[in-house]
Structures are given as C-alpha cells and as structure tokens.
C-alpha cells in the first residue's frame, strides 16, 4: 500500500460510529467494529491534504468524478457517514471565497441564477406537476409528492388566515404555485418576487393560463427593493428564500419584510434551519448553492423579537423534507439518462449526491425545516387556537 493510500485509510478510520468497508486496490479494510453497513470503493485515492482542507469537497468531487463508488444505496451510506460531519475537516481560511461570498445585489442574483436558472426542462423532469421546489407535507404514507406539495401550500395559506381582497407578497416565489392557489381559493391580490428569469417566465405563463392577470404579478426583484413597490401588504410569505441572503443580512431581510407589512399583518417564514450557527458545507456552497447559509432557529427568533415581530407558531417539518427529497431522488433516477444527455455524467452524479446527502442530513437531524408564523406587532384578531 502506498503512502497516499495509508494516509487516506488512516483519515477515514476516525469515522467509526458505524462500521463500513473501504476497498483500495481490491483489498478490503473494515472501519469500526461489526457488520459493515455499506462499502466505499476508491478507484483513485484522494490525498490527505485534500481531505484536511475540506473533507466534504475532497470526497464530493471524488464521487462526482467517479473516483469513488458506493456499494449499496447511496442515501443509506450517506446517512451513516454524514451523521459524523462533526469530524469533517474544513480550512475556512483557505476556502474563504467559497464559504463567505459577497452579499451584494449583483452577486446574489448571480448565485441564485446559477442554481435556479439551470433550465425549467431540467426541473420538470423530477419535480411534481406543481413545480414546487421546497419541502412537502405528507398527511399519510399514501400521499404522492404532488399530494404533499398541495398539502403544504394549503397548510401555509390556512396559517396566513387569508380573506378575500387581501394583498399577499411571496418573497422567492419560485414558479408561482403558492400565489396561484391563494388567488384561486381566496381571491387575494398577490405579488411574487424572484431573482430567477426562468422561474419568472414560467410563472407569467401560468398566470395567463389561469386567467389571473387581475390578481397576480411577478417581479424580477431583490428583496432589498421591496419598498419600491410602494405597497403595504396584509400578508407576506417566504418559502426557502432566507437561506440565500447570508448571515450578516438576516436582520436586514426581516426588516425589509416589516417595512412592507401592515401593522398586525402576518408573516410566514418557511426555511431550512440548523440547531447551531454554522457557515455551511463547503461542497454544497461550491457546487450547488453558492452563498447559501442556513440560519438557526434561535437567531431568527431573536432578530424577530428585536423588530417587534410576535412569534405566534413554530412547526418543524424535518421528516417531511427527508421524504420529499427521497421522492425527488426517485424521480431524478427515473430520468437519469435524459439528465446525462442534457448535461453530463458528472453533473448527474453531483445532483444525486446533493439530493441523497440532503435527505440523509434531514433524517439525522443535522438540519431541520421550520415554519414560523409572525405577526407585525400584536394581533388580537386571530383565532386563539392553532388549527384555525
């Protein structure tokens, strides 16, 4: 065994919470004690300095390039392995440009576009008919992905306590399903904002198809420009958006919402959360979500209090996101050949690693999903029970 292989094996040996096999040059090495729960095959061994610089990038890139293969289901292997992310190495100084990116309007638009403007045809292959790219809500084991996304949107709309004629702003509106449902069911007037041209194009087509031009509009707009709309909204909703603004701008983001929300108005924030404050995973930031940052629950609640947002309700949907991601990955695998043709084998491996690793980290509790319901100062007119 070469020195590079010995150093790699020695590095991997600390991830021994669950036993697994490492195969290098055809020879098996057991990490941990007991029956192995998965097997990693190294076709090319990463250098230890790469693993120490960023364990996540080194192993992630090795998988993308086909230098690593997993025997057994990728999702299960990642669940056992990534539960030990506390043992990963990250040289924050060397990776500063990846981990801590600029939060300027120009850079944020570039970062958001890099993910969401890959192409609507790509997302259509593995999302459901609603084109919802966020956590669903599974009322039963029998619910399909479509059912879960419809359930999620209806649950949000019920929490917002909408009435006919109200105004609703959706920050990070995606392809528009939530606002379309709100307009059709509650006859509210809605404005969606997004930084993705691809999403805006689809949303506008949907508005015309549903005949909702008198109720809905969509703007290509940064959240920092919300005040230029010169509208005070009865309700504001934000699904999977605050993760893109950066830790230094959470308070700014919340303050921008407050400025456009009527006194007593309701704000629902739906976002991926973390137990503790963390700069984020280097591989995810490099390849999937440049500039992405996951807020902790406590820092958002603290910021809200400073801005006189009253916290009315908090709900965790962590296990629902695990299930959502597994549905997405199943759909993704069903169209894998088309995705390879659209992009490349490396791209397909990158995205399946992303989907499976996220599913694994939600199951293990490394990350969570919270829906928080705020009122802008005190609101004594809402029903007193949660299930209104």
Proportion of beta-strand residues: 15-25%
Put simply, the count of helices is 16
> Low-confidence parts, pLDDT < 50 over ≥5 residues?
none
- What is the subunit organization of this protein? single chain
| Helix and strand sequence | HEEEHHEHHHHHEHEHEEHEHHEHHHE
Helix content: 40-55%
* Main beta sheet: 7 strands, mixed
How far is the first residue's CA from the last residue's CA?
65 Å
Mean pLDDT: 95
Query: If you compute it from the alpha carbons, what radius of gyration comes out, rounded to the nearest whole angstrom?
Result: 22 Å
Structural class: alpha/beta
Strand order of the largest sheet: 7-6-5-8-9-11-10
Tell me the total number of β-strands: 11
The coarse overall form would be elongated
Which SSEs are present, and which pair or pack?
Blueprint: H1 3-12, E1 20-24, E2 27-31, E3 39-42, H2 48-53, H3 55-64, E4 68-71, H4 74-82, H5 96-99, H6 105-116, H7 120-126, H8 145-159, E5 167-171, H9 177-186, E6 189-194, H10 197-210, E7 216-220, E8 233-239, H11 250-260, E9 261-274, H12 282-287, H13 297-306, E10 309-316, H14 318-334, H15 336-342, H16 345-364, E11 367-376
Parallel strand pairs: 1-3, 5-6, 5-8, 6-7, 8-9
Antiparallel strand pairs: 1-2, 3-4, 9-11, 10-11
Write up what this structure looks like.
The protein has 388 residues and is of the alpha/beta class. α10 links the parallel β6 and β7 (216-220). The mean pLDDT is 95. Helices cover 43% and strands 19% of the residues. It has helices spanning 3-12, 48-53, 55-64, 74-82, 96-99, 105-116, 120-126, 145-159, 177-186, 197-210, 250-260, 282-287, 297-306, 318-334, 336-342, 345-364, and strands at 20-24, 27-31, 39-42, 68-71, 167-171, 189-194, 216-220, 233-239, 261-274, 309-316, 367-376. It is built from 16 helices and 11 strands. α3 (55-64) packs across α16 and α14 (318-334) runs antiparallel to α16. It is elongated and about 70 Å long. It starts with a helix and ends in a 12-residue tail after the last strand. A 7-stranded mixed sheet has the order 7-6-5-8-9-11-10, with helices on both faces.
